[in-house]
């Protein structure tokens, strides 16, 4: 198969490119490197550019592409509140350009990285696919808009899609040579590991008065390799005439910020210093996935738990040859 991976130099995209290469796919990565790392693309052809650039898309899609995997999104909730224009342009506008080009060249298979942020404040836990989608940030709304676009493009142009709604992606490749490297870093586990390694002095906890057992937010962490496995199964499904579908991805187990801190201290054997800060807006108290549908339909099941996630991420931090 010839697969275009948009955003394949980013955190999850680079792990997916590697998995596709290991399955002998012909991989083309398109990434503008605004947040990705060129060195993390370990298989196939790399093209630097934006998925909203029709000239670049013409050159790639005219060569014959079997499916597109789309990871190229802006993902910071706080930033989306401050600069919604960026999120609607990048997450919606550029995806619309990509879908139009796919329609023109007859590319009918699309795998989309969506998010639990499309659900907003949970009305019940765990969150299944029938849960109302009422996002509370421009980031979540931009992802929901793409999901709605995909439904319309299926009905009008026959582009089949699978939307995978991640809860909290985390961890690193089990070999320790590929991992999470955002600039700036905003995700909890890598920030904690920066404290454990001495790169940072402390971690800010944004609120300890949520309606949770210890007052800190509860999230469902899913290993990046488990996410990639779900993408692979979704690709096999859609390439074999599967209908468009959306799935939630998570372990179904929630951990509070304090519980994650405790796990990081256990794995790293380092004390984590924390500071209490004010709550952030658009931050639900609990997000836990009900992933039974993808398990039933595609046979997906997460392999790694929170301890594995932290262990693999810590191995990545301490790998001397992975620094780009």
From TrEMBL:
Q: How does it assemble?
A: Homodimer.
- The EC number(s) attached to this protein equal 5.1.3.2
Gene Ontology BP term (one): galactose catabolic process via UDP-galactose, Leloir pathway
Official protein name in the record = UDP-glucose 4-epimerase
Residue ranges annotated for the NAD-dependent epimerase/dehydratase domain, each copy included: 3-250
Does this entry carry the keyword NAD?
yes
Q: Which cofactor does it need?
A: NAD(+)
